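I hope you will forgive my troubling you with a question about protein structure. Here, with my thanks, is the record as I have it:
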Amino acid sequence: MAGKNVHFIGIKGIGLSALAQFFADAGAKVTGSDSPEEFPSDAVLKRLKIPLTSFSPKNISSRIDLVIYSSAYNENHPEIKKALSLKIPVKSYGEILAEVFNRGENKILVAGSHGKTTTTALLGHLLDTAGCQPTVFVGGISNNWQGNFKKGENKWLVAEGDEYQKKFLFLKPDYLLITNIDYDHPDYFKNKKEYCRAFEKLKKQTKKKIFIGKKISPAFRKFLAKINFPLLGEKNKENAFLVYRLAKELKIPDEKIGIAFKTFKGVKRRMEIIKEFKIKNLKLKIIDDYAHHPEEIKATLAAL
């Protein structure tokens, strides 16, 4: 796609903005449209000087080679309609992520109802620390990279799998990490059985090995205590255990795992301390957290 004109509809979305960075890095001329509302990805897109406009069919012309749209929209969107009328290739976020991901030599997918963003960022940071030079797509802003995409080689490719609308079924991983399965997205999945069935399909199309989240072992608890693991809460420790088990499968030594875990700075809006201040003798903190599912809220409150 080097030198090609690629337009993103809904570019501020966390998944689409990561793909936009990938295409820009590959030499494509990237443009995008979205609402004027503030998004976590705004700073990243501004840093890359990607032109942003409000939604309008005027954004679409025959000079565009490819249109990629967020799954929040469909063929009724005015820009998608215009692109189709001009016979410009139009693809969804899930389709394009799959075209990129499925070309990797060693493809690692992180899925699950809760905790997958932090787990993906931690795994990406670990592989980077171990010298694997991974390419990573994260569903949040990593504090280590100040972005939701990390450029690397295609030998190691890490992505976060989104179960909503079964988008993760486009992906064919070699290794699959599932943090947990807890009924979510009732606007799309009729019941828990249908929700779980999507994960079962994903497991069947995994080529090498599947790791599923579980309670941490006493030995791993000692390992975390020794390195002073920075993330709060039992759920984060369980997700770190998931990453650790994959790392051992990949023969990454404990020393490098420890360095990566100790230097991991977390993800924005995941128990993120955004301000510390003092009023009289009280030391106060403002913590921002994205938790919205009841189980996520329970886990956050328990950790705090």
Notes: The chain has a mean pLDDT of 92. Residues 229 and 239 are 12 Å apart (CA to CA). The first strand starts at residue 5 and ends at 9. Residues 234-249 form the longest helix (16 residues).
